[in-house]
Amino acid sequence: MRFLLTIYGEERRLAERDDETTKAAVDAYWALDNEATAAGVFVESAGLYPTENAKTVRIRDGEQTVTDGPFAETKEQLGGFYLLECDGIEEALEWAAKVPAARTGSVEVRQVMDYEAAGFPNPAAEGARSA
Amino acid sequence: MKYVLLLLGDESGWENLSEEESQAEMEAEMAAYQEYDRELSEAGVFVAGEGLQPTSTATTMRIVGGERVLTDGPFAETKEQLGGFYVLDCKDLDGALGWAERCPASKRGSIEIRPVIDYEAMGYQQPQGSEEASR
Q1: Which of A91, A102, A127, B119 makes an SS bond possible with A86, Cβ 3.0 to 4.6 Å?
Q2: What is the pTM of this model?
């Protein structure tokens, strides 16, 4: 089963880091990517630009509105995620503990929906929502 | 350029439906997403996408003094909750906004679009001998 690890932290602290600290942080995440890949659990990961780059889209009565910034102001901001294939929540939590930001921010762990198991098979042979 | 589309909506909307309504709603929703996924794949922009279990199933972890501190629920209480996401490879932000507009979630909730960092382009070379190049 798949789990999404969403990584939250105070992004203003990231902006204060010097180049050396940033490089060490990126290297730590690459090491985690490689460890998860070697363990066969890695599906996808991404680091996100700060929320000042975010846009939020809503459609109401057929009219699209685009606002600058994230959908909600929070003390910690979403900075990236891991999508992992694990045997269960315990294994997912093991990986969450290895995420460097668990020491400075928070890592939220949520199981991904298995739509096929829920009785909604995918009509397309490939390329769509992978369950 | 990769973009993450965060699909946000009010989870409680599902709780107020009868089982029959919920089933019909779910089927309509799934059909809409299957059509959307098909369009994304045909356009060659689909990288990843998942729907999430409700936030009641979330566990949030912090490491404090080397010890795991676990709390039930999401990292923050918000009016709308993260219900799923897509990673799309688009030409530019306008392309990503176009796909966000077509996503079923934009009609009742919100879609937050965030550009993904290309660490290699920023000069942070991945250590040698590793296969994974997504970060």
Answers
A1: A91
A2: 0.90
